[in-house]
Inverse folding.
């Protein structure tokens, strides 16, 4: 679909900042959390109460010139239900609506980034035609379609919380301990002449090893070609 390369969290963050809808500090924290925790930028803002999903959906619809659709109001085709794996639907909170040849119409959880859509298109040999939807609506429809979705959602939340806990408590302590051992050894060497030489060796041993010279990386391969662009469903208004 033409124009989906504009759909990025950074661009949405710029729009929110320009219109002073959400504070810059909140936006920065949300982008950081998305990068570190894997939670979608839009969902972070909505869950945190910084903006309603309706207001955010209206903003995305107007700025990116995309149609809005409530997933529960659409009669989802059987072909659409089987076109994409449920793991993909769960991970991105998207609802498949219909299939027209290689085109798969989906309801986004307000917004789905271009990178995520491009990956889905490559891996599943399709072209996505996105509608702006609501996060809560998509979760409700996914629960109706797949009874194991709530369990997956709960497990995913626990996984993210555990990963965050490990990052906050594990890495920093280990690094602090390594550096403190160097300072302790140096302090002992200055105070005790007898222990000066062993302490010096301890300091040398505690120093981090020099970085290995950079070598040539693997040559990136071009992504497989996706199916050719086709005319969107008649129901969709012109896109940007």
């Amino acid at each position: 679909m033409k124009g989906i390369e504009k759909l990025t969290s950074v661009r949405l963050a710029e729009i929110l900042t320009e219109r002073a809808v959400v504070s810059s500090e909140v936006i920065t924290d949300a982008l950081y959390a998305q990068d570190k925790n894997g939670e979608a930028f839009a969902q972070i803002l909505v869950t945190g109460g910084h903006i309603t999903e309706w207001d955010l959906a209206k903003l995305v619809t107007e700025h990116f010139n995309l149609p809005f659709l409530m997933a529960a109001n659409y009669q989802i085709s059987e072909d659409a239900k089987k076109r994409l794996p449920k793991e993909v639907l769960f991970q991105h909170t998207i609802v498949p609506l219909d299939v027209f040849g290689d085109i798969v119409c989906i309801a986004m959880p307000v917004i789905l980034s271009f990178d995520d859509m491009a990956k889905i298109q490559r891996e599943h040999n399709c072209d996505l035609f996105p509608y702006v939807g609501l996060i809560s609506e998509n979760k409700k429809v996914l629960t109706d379609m797949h009874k194991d979705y709530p369990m997956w959602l709960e497990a995913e939340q626990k996984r993210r919380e555990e990963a965050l806990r490990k990052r906050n408590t594990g890495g920093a302590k280990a690094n602090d301990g390594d550096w403190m051992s160097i300072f302790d050894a140096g302090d002992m060497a200055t105070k005790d002449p007898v222990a000066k030489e062993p302490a010096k060796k301890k300091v040398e041993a505690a120093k981090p090893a020099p970085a290995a010279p950079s070598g040539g990386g693997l040559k990136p391969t071009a992504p497989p070609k996706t199916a050719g662009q086709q005319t969107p469903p008649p129901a969709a208004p012109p896109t940007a």
Q: What stands out?
A: The chain has two domains: 4-146, 150-206.
